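Hi C.,

You asked whether I'd gotten around to modeling the 455-residue construct. I have! Everything is below, sequence then structure, no commentary in between.
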Amino acid sequence: MNTIINWIITLMLTVVPYMLSAQETITFNTLEETIGYAIENNNNLEGARIDQEIIQAQIAEVKGRTLPQINGNAGFIDNFSLQEQQLPAEVFGGEPGTTIGVAFGNRYQYKAGVSVQQQLLNFQLFSSIKSTSALSELRSLQTLVTTQDLIVNIIQTYVQVQVFEKQVDLLQQNFDRTDNLIQISEAKLKEGIIKKLDLNQLMVNRSNLKTQIEDARFATNQQMRLFKVLLQIPMTTDVVLIEKLEDRNPYPLGTELLLDANLEYQQIDKSVELSIIDQKLIKAEYLPSLSANFGYNYLGQANEFANFDANIYQGQWSGTWGVSASIPIFDGFQRSNRLKQKEFATEQLELDKETLKLNIEKDFGNAKEQLLLSNSQIESQKTNMDLAQENYDGIKTSYNEGVANLTELLDSEFALRQAQSNYLNALLQSKVAEVTLLKSSGRLSQLIANPTTNN
């Protein structure tokens, strides 16, 4: 038994390190590279592309109704028990006043033919083609919206991951400093220079920092898992992000709101257009329709199966063609009520369009102001963080020399951590505002439409 256990342990020690070393790693050098990867692999975006293909097939289906509809038919009938008609028997030489059953027709019938129908005038059909074309454009816009949302989520998650990673680094530096202070303070305590309560306060701070580091690492891992979902990357794959967003130049944001370039606004505008077409579709039901038809058929009859003897087998051809019209007269006010529903729906969309316009203007104004504020705060908080670091280093030196007390040192450390937190928050808010401004202004949709000319 011990031999088996030792063998299993040896196998685990051999296989597990190999599995860990064989774990796949994907490296992204730039944000654009990350976005391109997601666009190629994201399932939601692929589903949007499939929806577009479905719409194109639906358009082709509707257009197919304008082409000739040709059907062929063929059949075989065995009248193994022909129906009899009762006729006067005297006609056939029978007894007057009696009847005799006579069967009419042939036992076997063979038939085949072709029929053709062609729409000549159908306003409802023509409106249906316009409706499906507008629906195709709406789905194309939906694909762009899905792409835009994906890009926004990727950028925001990218930023969150890097902000949390930077937070972990800063907290770890604070933890190391506090740990070093504890070692120094323990020596001071033995010498009777400081009180036990001072050392306890440092140990509490170190414990709190350890908790904050664990929380920040958890948040980093949480955002990274979301990042992998957006990129359709297995959870077991390591992802390395090379480019630091705080070091790159911002996108060309501009200061003008391009409302007509905003994808959500384009989408609702196209929905209004589609709703108006739907009204025309119902109105077309009031108009007459005109169609042409053609048919050519063959009928063969015989009393012996598969006998094509001209004396026994009889065949004949028949053909027809014509034009038919359908004129709606009265349907119990169904069409008029459906038309009212579409008119009300169009009015509702117009109201939604106005509300969306106000919200876009609000988001644009908020993002523009937030970006200016955050960029200003980044500069001031970075300067403030450098000053806090310098102040902390000076007081720490004084503390080591016995000039400054622990309270001063703890206050300077708290000020340093507060400055670091404010800096990270300003950096995060700046990048989020940048993306929101890109989206609401319509600039992001232009970048999506022309990716090669906007790098």
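If it helps when you're writing up: The beta strands are 25-28, 69-78, 84-88, 99-103, 108-121, 238-241, 289-302, 314-326.

Thanks,
B.
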